[in-house]
Amino acid sequence: MGLQNGFLNETSERGQVDQRVEQVLSFIKADLRRKVRIGELSRLVNLSPWRLCHIFKVHIGMSIIDSVQRFRMEEATHLLELRSMGLPLRMIYVSGCSS
Asked: The whole model's pTM is what?
C-alpha cells in the first residue's frame, strides 16, 4: 500500500501503510461531502475509536479530521482549476468529476 495524495509520515515496520488506514482513506475519499464520524470509521475497520485515531496519525502524520479537511481543500482547488479552464461549475458537478 502506499501514498495517498502526499499523505504519509511514518510507516509500519514493514514499510507499508496499515490496510485499515488505507480502507479509512478510501471510505473518506469516496464521498467528501459526508460528515465524518470517528465511531463509524472505527467500526468499519473493527478498531476502537482511540486506536484508529492513533494508528491513522502514526501512518499519515495528521489526524483524521485534519486529513478530511485537506482532502476537501484539494478537491475544491481541483474544481476551481477546472472552472478556470472555462468549464461551467454545474457541468463539473453533474459530471461527477472529482479526480
From this structure: 0.70
